[in-house]
Structure to design on (147 residues):
């Protein structure tokens, strides 16, 4: 009888300088509430925090060294505002590159997310925007004097 091992992961995407920063962590199951809690502890370079996450399931056969991805969820956006081309034209008229990209690539809707640094991503079929409250910024502790 052939054995195999299955592990679930959640990958968080945060705004980066050129590409999104990614942090992947194991998770017991594709549990949205658990992933939302985990997202609160993810902080990337320059204080960037996640704008979305995806679940994956990896499987490894007992006679193999590497696992392979066998399932991937759509994206779960941590809050954000869904906007169409018309919305962007009206509310963000100076965003000419965004408008051009939406028109040229036939992107009907984007999610504008300001959890940390602004992120604008296409809203794909199956993607979900979930309720999310940005945690209050933590104040840096002041260095104290030692007596």
């Amino acid at each position: 009888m052939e054995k195999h091992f299955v592990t679930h992961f959640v990958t968080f995407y945060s705004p980066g300088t050129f590409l999104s920063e990614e942090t992947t962590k194991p998770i017991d199951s594709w549990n949205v509430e658990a992933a939302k809690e985990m997202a609160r502890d993810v902080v990337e370079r320059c204080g960037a925090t996640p704008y979305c996450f995806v679940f994956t399931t990896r499987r490894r056969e007992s006679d193999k060294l590497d696992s392979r991805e066998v399932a991937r969820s759509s994206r779960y956006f941590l809050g954000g505002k869904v906007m169409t081309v018309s919305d962007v034209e009206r509310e963000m008229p100076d965003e000419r590159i965004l408008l051009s990209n939406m028109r040229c690539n036939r992107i009907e809707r984007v999610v504008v997310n300001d959890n940390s640094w602004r992120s604008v991503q296409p809203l794909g079929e199956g993607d979900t925007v979930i309720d999310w409250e940005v945690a209050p910024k933590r104040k840096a502790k002041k260095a104290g004097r030692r007596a």
The chain has a mean pLDDT of 90.
